[in-house]
Amino acid sequence: MLAFFNYHQDANCSRAAAGEAAGIRLPARLQAVAGMVPPGSRVADIGTDHAYLPLYLAGSGRCPRVIAVEAAPGPYRRALAAVAAAGLQERVEVRLGEGLAPLQPGEVDTVTMAGLGALTQQGILEAGREVRQELKRLILQPQGEAGPLRRYLAATGWYLYNEDLVYEAGHYYIILAASQGTSPTYSDLEWRIGPLLLQRRHPLLRDYLLHKMEKLTAAVRQLAAGRGARAKERLMDLSRQLEEIREVLAWLPGAAKS
Question: pTM for the whole thing?
Answer without folding.
Answer: 0.86
